[in-house]
Amino acid sequence: MTSAKRRALLLRANRDLGAALVDANLVKVAKLATATERLLELAAAGPARQATLLGVLAYELKAVTEEDALLHLAEEQGAGLVDLRECDVTDEVKASLDLDACWATWSLPFDREEGFTYVATAHGLSETVRHHWEKQCDGPVLWFGATLDGIADMLEKIEAARITAKSAENNAP
Description:
The protein is of the alpha/beta class and 173 residues long. It is built from eight helices and four strands, in the order ααααβααββαβα.
């Protein structure tokens, strides 16, 4: 994914998330406007781990809790909840992951079983996020809410493993 496509996906996903949080009365419009400005700064300069509207709203502005957003996702959309620290992403899924799309949407496909793809997300209230992954996955998607830290930690672990594998491949005789 090019950086321009990643940025466009990130901005659409976060815009939809913000609208959903306001619609659910979890965030006030004024706080959303402030958070959006901060997100634009982070998207331009910060590491991927910081470029999340939910993170800005929850941890910088204290306008909503991550728990409230995840509970709303579970109650209103029937998503399960998953602790990614207790999961292993299957090798089949790891091999085909678009990490840029994962960071842009704060989502991570983590398993496939009987034709279903299991996707963990912190931004599941965003229609852009759901549509993106439903198009990418071969078959139906089962949604699970997950924390920002859980997703970021798993994505960083996968990135590190890819770097190690590439380094070993480059150093092989």
